[in-house]
Amino acid sequence: MLIEVDFNSDEAIYIQLCNQIILGIAMSDIQEGDSLPSVRQLADTVGVNMHTVNKAYHVLKQEGYISLDKRRGAVIAVDVDKFQQLEAMKEQLRIVLARGRCKNISRQEVHGLVDEIFDEYELHENR
User: Which intervals hold domain HTH gntR-type (predicted)?
Assistant: First the structure.
């Protein structure tokens, strides 16, 4: 899995790392049980501080995407608490949709975007 960081982005580097790993899971580039690189390896590969990678891994653990094992390191272990995830998504979507509504983006356009994104995941998964 290729992880790239945009050092010019306003988004924190650890969040970029988290988002890219989550996208990797969604696209089936990495799957349940796969090990992620060690903190040191990923930091060297991406060119960031080890503490940044460590923070990303701890956030991913808190959010239920990975487990941290002393022998295997960071392992993809998606916590399947669907109700809790739906509630978290609802809160995040509330803000995203409010921003879209302020810019006159229609319900149909949003539905089209959601379908497009899910189609990308499925297409990537079936490669």
Answer: 11-79
